[in-house]
Amino acid sequence: MASITLRNIIKRYGHGPKANPVIHGVNAEIHDGEFVVIVGPSGCGKSTLLRMVAGLEEITGGTISIGERVVNNLEPAQRDIAMVFQNYALYPHMSVFDNMAYGLKIASVPRDEIKTRVDKAAKILELGHLLERKPRELSGGQRQRVAMGRAIVRQPQVFLFDEPLSNLDAKLRAQTRIEIQKLHRELGITSLFVTHDQVEAMTLAQRMIVMNAGNMEQFGTPEEVYHTP
Ligand code: ADP
Ligand code: ADP
Q1: What is the number of the ligand closest to the CA of 54?
Q2: 45 CA distance to ligand 1 centroid (A)?
Q3: Which ligand ends up closest to the CA of 156?
Q4: Looking at the whole model, is its pTM more than 0.80?
Q5: Does ligand 2 have an atom closer than 6 angstroms to the CB of 77?
Q6: Which residues fall in a coiled-coil region (predicted)?
Q7: Can you tell me which atom of ligand 1 is nearest the CA of 40?
């Protein structure tokens, strides 16, 4: 687990006079173990902010720290983060176990250790009885849980969620939301979750960052954010 510190974060896409900043100097400190939701309308910069924390997008100005480390110049794999995306492509020809194990195999984690980690994640996500199945033999909800399992087995300091619920139907969305809450209760991993959906934000957030047009307009608990006059 680790805190995430954003200091005066600026982002401009491209160069030259036409390159308007899309993030205008965001400052925020996300505490160790906290679940923070970034919410705001489409195009306000939520995804850009998250991708900068992940290392998938260059930072134009400011510093991002994860724990004690400034990560500005670190590759994604060095940042101790795991991401859960909206489009969770599972490998169709691989079993659930192999889908979860794949990243660890690539990283040369020893076999026994891989088995221990996958079994632990499968237990948390109630996938233990499905480890030999192929993705096509799973329900949508089960597939989504395998995608989360892939992130968990990395044992990251930080989880980054990029609108992971937005392609799901209402029932599955509610179910997966509960799954994510349970995950956070059990593992307590510092989490940053991006959504444009206010209800989703309120339900999941311990605190929420409200973005608008590249600015952080509010940062507080759902009560604080919705009860300010
Ligand atoms: P959100 O996630 O809130 O919908 P984004 O972070 O995707 O917002 O986008 C913020 C702004 O940056 C938008 O104006 C968008 O058009 C612009 N933008 C996003 N990605 C790029 C890119 N690769 N090149 C240029 N502009 C981009
Ligand atoms: P792929 O087959 O898509 O390349 P890998 O598991 O081989 O996936 O990972 C490739 C690189 O991307 C590695 O450096 C790994 O650390 C990083 N990576 C893959 N998935 C994630 C994730 N969910 N979160 C963070 N980093 C990831």
Answers
A1: 2
A2: 6
A3: 2
A4: yes
A5: yes
A6: none
A7: 3
What would the 3-class secondary structure string for the chain be? CCCEEEEEEEEECCCCCCCCEEEEEEEEEECCCCEEEEECCCCCCHHHHHHHHHCCCCCCEEEEEECCEECCCCCHHHCCEEEECCCCCCCCCCCHHHHHHHHHHHCCCCHHHHHHHHHHHHHHCCCHHHCCCCHHHCCHHHHHHHHHHHHHCCCCCEEEEECCCCCCCHHHHHHHHHHHHHHHHHHCCEEEEEECCHHHHHHHCCEEEEEECCEEEEEECHHHHHCCC
ipTM value > 0.85: no
Give the residue, out of 74, 154, 159, 160, with the most ligand 2 atoms within 8 A of its beta carbon, to mutate for a pocket test: 154
- C-alpha 48 – ligand 1 centre gap (Å): 6
Confidence grade of residue 116 (pLDDT, cut at 50, 70, 90): very high
**Centroid of ligand 1 to alpha carbon of 54 (angstroms):** 16
Pocket of ligand 1 (CB under 6 A): 13, 22, 40, 42-48
Task: Summarize the confidence of residues 117-133 as an average pLDDT.
Answer: 95
The first and second tokens of residue 144, run together, are 């989504």
Cβ of residue 76 lying under 6 Å from some atom of ligand 2: yes
